[in-house]
Amino acid sequence: MLVNYWKILFLILFTVWNQAVIAQSTLLMEEDFDLLSGTNISGQHAWTMGASGTNKVDIISPGLTFPDYPGVATSNAVAFTPLTDRVQRNFEGVLSGNYYYSFLINVSSAGSGEFFAGFYSSSAFRGRAYIKADGEGFQFGLLKSTASGVAPTYTSGTPYSFGTTYLVVVKYEFVQGAQNDKVNLYVNPDLKSEESDTPTIGPLTDNGNDVSANVFALQGRNNSGNFVLDGIRIGTDWAAIKGISSENHFVELPKCISSHMVLQRDVPIKLWGWGLPGDTLIVEFARQSQIFKDSVTIAQDKRWFLQLPAQSVCLEPCELKFQVKNRRETLQVLEDILIGDVWFAGGQSNMEKKVNHLLEVEQYVQEADNYPHIRSFRASYNPQTMPREKVNDASGSWFVCNSSEIADKVSAIAYVYARNLFESQHVPIGILQSYRGGTEIETWMSPKIFEDTELCKIAGRKMSIDSTVVSQYHSLHFNGQINPLVNFPVKGFIFYQGESNVKRAPEYRLLMKKLIEDWRKLWKMGDLPFYYIQLFNIYSPSVYEESNWADCREQQALLLSDCLPHTGMAVIIDTNEEALNPDGNINIHPRNKKPVGERLARIALKNTYHVDILADGPVLSSYKFSNDTVYLYFKNQGSGLRIKTGDTFLKGFVISGNDKKFYIAQATICNDSTVVVTSASVLEPVAVRYAWARNPICNLYNSEDLPAMPFRTDTWKSSFVYTDFPSFCTLKSNDATLITIRINGVTIDGFHPQQLMYDYFSEDSGYQDIVAITNSPFAKMEKVENFIDKKVVLKVTAEDGSVLQYEINMKASTPVANAGMKTIFVYQKNKDLIIKNNIGQSYDMMIYDLMGHCIISDYINGCGEKNYSTSPGIYLIQLKSPEQNECIKFLLK
Questions:
Q1: At 164, is the secondary structure helix, strand, or coil?
Q2: Which among 351, 385, 621, 880 counts the fewest CB atoms within 10 Å?
Q3: Alpha helices, DSSP H only, in 566-614?
Q4: In 3D, which of 103, 322, 99, 118 has the Cα closest to residue 228?
Q5: For 719-740, b where at least 16 C-beta lie within 10 A, e where not — what string?
Q6: Any idea what the Cα angle at residue 82 is, between residues 77 and 84, rounded to 5°?
Q7: 594-607 and 412-425 are packed helices; what angle lies between their axes, rounded to 10 degrees?
């Protein structure tokens, strides 16, 4: 009997404690409409349409403000007109105690009276707020319920003024199982005081059944008028509305930290979120029998950040717990967490297309349950004009990529990629998805990157790329879909974008380089792998053509020569099964995405996971023109070059003479790595191209069935006509550097963009074809050959007129000279000039400035290295030994 007494007492105390927890001050919903002006609210911040969906609720700028009212200083607002459709949003609530909702309102006109806000469930409203016209102004109204025959109670006396912002608070007191609920309305209450005893309207206690307090609705009714709303807050007490409650203890996690997630192995676990300033947050991570625990004090700005020790791979479920110290009600437990590799998948629509778009969709869905260690999180559409800390509510949380989830929720390419990695490495794979169709690359770059002077002209086009398409504003999708995720450690990035930038193809290499540098800097994890996809083959009747697609593919390929470590590119010019379909809605989104994901995975397996496989198709490594014949030498050929299965002769090659007219050529594989090209129409070829068309008809592969990369040996200006988009940039690029110098297709040994002088040694006295590519798309390059002095000068002129000259001294090869110059390297590291000697030969060394003054005289030992800190400028480095006297010119930035 005594035992039962203690059980009953415990239950009573627990119930009292639980009710006290519920009654504590809690902010259940906050909305300051920090969304893009000009969009409609439906589908954003978890708002849904509750009516026909024909008259959208628009986001407008600027928002509303009210003294001491929290959370609206930088927001926008929503505008309602008569017959604007209802929008509603769920929040957490229970059918007990007091509930408050508040908002700022600015009325421009009013009708004969109608409600516009209130708690809502099914077809029933409670605590409805009204407005109606009254002379030169309007009055507020309130109705407790939808009970038959009950009219709203309106304010009286001097009407409220049009064009003035008011704070309105509605209090609804629920009484379980009765019809005597109470409702009050306050206009412009004193936020510095406690709750007022004298509401503007109320208390009202008309009959009406209880309604769950977990949906809030807004609507522009026929007789309510025109008004703007901002700063909606829903809470359980007056302090929550004021935003200063000391009892509102809580733990808020970003949506990308949830149950079922994959955490990046071998790096510290980064955790962050929000809470009540001054609270101590305790975090505990448990894997098998090990527990890792730490705590952090929440800062005054409500933010907290914490790191736990790095973890090795774990395929068994782990657990994370978060709790404010001494606040049991704040406990959050995240379960089924794995430790493996997390890959970030970004881009536009061809990365976005889900598994249900695959040709092999049935197979992949049926087999998905065999891969429970593949997980994903998706940051949903969230266009923002300023960087945000949080993804929107529609983003959901992490989920297991099983058969019920992957078809509609996971990128096809990213899933194929992840599955190939898991099958090889047997470590959990997480996919962070962030993409949106039809977007330009500038929308995925941070605002700060556009401060780069190299991007000034491009950034200056912010409003002129397409002023009618709001979704293309610079950084728009970065702000809401990338910035909130930069704290989440990843293994690397996969990226598929470019279709929306072909109209400005010549700029694409520079833009993509800046995006890669931008993301790597934001993640603060070094040179993370960045693997991307070259543009696919798309409808065109031409076998060969100069096109923006071919130009953009070339810009993507040039990134591989751009001093960007840990990058790779998947070639997919043979994957579009609908390439000959003239319907642009079909040929722009190929379903044959399995080989795309597989080829991307091969690159990662070789370069990141160090699997001994051939990851790329044949790539031109060098070439030679001899009379009427072109000899092409390839790398990545595997056990030998191949013609695509089913074909009998090579296709896709064209050659040209000095007249710059290209003719279809006959090509033959003469050994495992060499292709010979000729044409009866070109007796003295000077240029050759391969797969140079929107839909190239080509068939050169290697032994792993990987296609050869499109290429050209010339640098002639494309005959494709590009629109000259206007720019409001007042600066002009001063970048006159090169990204590569190739002689007969081979990059000069030790090339560095700031090194301006090179000696080239060759035993071949024949024609040396020199190709150079400028770093800035707005720079001009002129080649001057002096056959008497055997010198080639590459003069690069930047947009602002500044000039750099690269000098190449063509010399006959000797064993000593050849060995010497291939082992002296000059480069810049941070702001220092580095000179490295990789052989045993020692050198006397003098460094001269542009005026010819010797500023440094030194000696560099064999296999030695020297570092010099000096001011930016052009320097001549002279190296002397008994056998050799050489000069290197270098630009120190």
A1: coil
A2: 880
A3: 584-587, 594-607
A4: 103
A5: eeeeeeeebebeebbebbbbbb
A6: 60
A7: 40
Q: What are phi and psi of 286, to 5 degrees?
A: -125, 125
* pLDDT score for 795: 96
Q: Are 59 and 33 in contact (CB under 8 A)?
A: yes
Contacts of 661 (CB under 8 A, 6+ apart): none
Helical H runs in 502-660?
A: 508-523, 548-558, 584-587, 594-607
Q: Is 429 helix (H, G, I), strand (E, B) or coil?
A: strand
Alpha carbon distances (Å) from 688 to 3, 395, 714: 94, 49, 7
- Alpha carbons 840 and 233: distance in angstroms, whole number: 74
CA distance 477 to 436: 8
Measured in whole angstroms, how far is the alpha carbon of residue 99 from the centre of its chain? 39
Q: What is the pTM of this model?
A: 0.78
How is residue 469 written in tokens? 């398409």
Give whole-number Cα distances, 436 to 382, 384, 420, 481, 492, in Å: 10, 13, 24, 10, 19
Residues ≥6 apart with Cβ < 8 Å to 102: 167, 168, 169, 170, 231, 232, 233, 234, 241
pLDDT at 206: 66
CA–CA separation, 302 and 277 (whole Å): 5
How far apart are the C-alpha atoms of 416 and 414, rounded to whole Å? 6
* Cα 637 to Cα 531, 641, 696, 711, 712, distances in angstroms: 21, 5, 20, 16, 18
Give dist(CA 226, CA 105) in Å, integer.
10
Helix or strand run (H / E) with residue 244 = none
* Phi, psi (degrees; rounded to nearest 5) at 583: -75, 110
Identify which of 346, 433, 377, 413 has the alpha carbon closest to the alpha carbon of residue 260. 377
Residue range 276-321, pLDDT digits in tens = 999 999 999 999 989 999 999 999 999 999 999 999 999 999 999 9
Virtual CA dihedral for 24, 275, 91, 87, nearest 10 degrees? Answer: 130
Beta-carbon-side half-sphere exposure of residue 376 (alpha carbons within 13 Å): 28
Q: Are 475 and 383 in contact (CB under 8 A)?
A: no
Distance from C-alpha of 589 to C-alpha of 696, rounded to nearest angstrom? 17
628, 684 contact by CB (below 8 A): yes
Tokens of 535: 């543009």
Give every CB contact of residue 856 below 8 A, 6+ residues apart in sequence. 845, 846, 847, 868, 870
The per-residue pLDDT for 128 is 92
Among residues 106, 32, 24, the alpha carbon closest in space to that of 69 is found at 32
| Structure tokens, 668 | 């033959």
Burial (CB count within 10 angstroms: exposed 0-12, middle 13-18, buried 19+), residue 440: buried
CA distances from 528 to 15, 283, 348, 518, 565 (A): 52, 28, 21, 11, 9
pLDDT in tens, 742-754: 999 999 988 989 9
- Which stretches of the chain drop beneath a pLDDT of 70? 1-25, 51-53, 73-74, 93-95, 121-123, 147, 176-179, 196-197, 206-213, 244-248, 461-471, 765, 787, 812-823
Say whether 455 sits in a helix, a strand or coil: helix
What does the block give as tokens for 674? 């060499």
CA–CA separation, 533 and 530 (whole Å): 10
**Pairing verdict, β 215-220 and 84-90:** antiparallel
Q: Give the residue carrying structure tokens 């730490």.
A: 294
For every residue of 653-722, DSSP letters joined together read EEEE-TT--EEE-EEEEEETTEEEEEBTTBSS--EEEES-SSS----EE-TTS-BPPPEES--PPP-SPP
